[in-house]
Design a protein that fits this description.
Elements lengths: L2 H18 L4 H21 L9 H17 L5 H23 L5 H20 L1 H4 L5 E2 L12 H28 L1 H18 L4 H27 L1 E2 L6 H14 L5 H20 L4 H15 L3 H26 L8
Membrane topology: Multi-pass membrane protein
Protein name: Branched-chain amino acid ABC transporter permease
Pfam family, one: BPD_transp_2
Length: about 325
Amino acid sequence: MKVPVLSLLAALATLLLGYAYSWTITPIVIGLTYAIAALGVSVMARAGQVSFGHAMYACISAYTVAFLARAVPGADALVLILAGVLASFLAAVVIGLFVVRYRGIFFGMLNLALSMVLFALLGKLYTLTGGSDGLRIVRPALAGMVMERDDFERALLVLTLVLSLALAWWVQRYFRSGSGQALSAIKTNETRLEYLGFSAYLIMWKGYLLSAVVVGFSGAILALMQGLVTPEIGSWLRSGEFVFITILGGAGHAAGAFLGAVGFETVKLASAAYFPGLWQFLLGLTLILVIFIFPTGFVGQIMKRAAAQKREQSRAQARDQSTVRIPVRN
């Protein structure tokens, strides 16, 4: 069964679960925001660059939603989401011009430093941002409809699922495009890419913008779901969780971010419920085991097995075609 069909079936099963058990809507939507953010981080991981500060784009988007909701009380939720994503994009345009010049640990640490500057400012500017208490968001209308809390959460679940499928399709399409292939070439041999006439700087910058926009969607949805925006959304711990999910799922396919998020949330919730004092240890142990057993993540292992089965089928067909049957004459 192909990935698009499996994705639609998974989205349908998630939707039915949310409608059958309303208490699962909040963890599902929050888990999907983590998956969307990891999807953005995986774009840069394709180039071999890991950002430890990409949560700042979720934070920028979330605070934009909060500020605009307060400034324009009648603003629709869809407008708020688009405004948050636009703010993330504009921030990435400026920040990306500087950070994409660097590679490896310098790229990761520079993003981390910038995110911590933002985190500190949000905590200190109490009169503007509410400090560590954050800003509350009055529940807005969604698509022009004013809803009660339960109906709003169900509608937000549907919207989040649709956005997840659309963003996954967009990112996977980018991976298969010429720009996406060039981005992957930066990881393998950047010098050869430059000799072929491509600008590695421009390719990295475009990938960085896409990455920030995708993460921006996660921040905007999280802000609406929680109804509260705090500096913790942009903390280095949150960025680390996004990287954790990316490594867990693998960056070989857009579906890796969602598989990683399922694994992350499952281990986190189960260990917090049964081993509340050891849940962080169990998360770290899970990551170590995945790195040793599945170095390319869940999706990498799946793709490896699928490729092996395809090769075996091709060999079997070749053997069948090469077999010559000699007719027997009476």
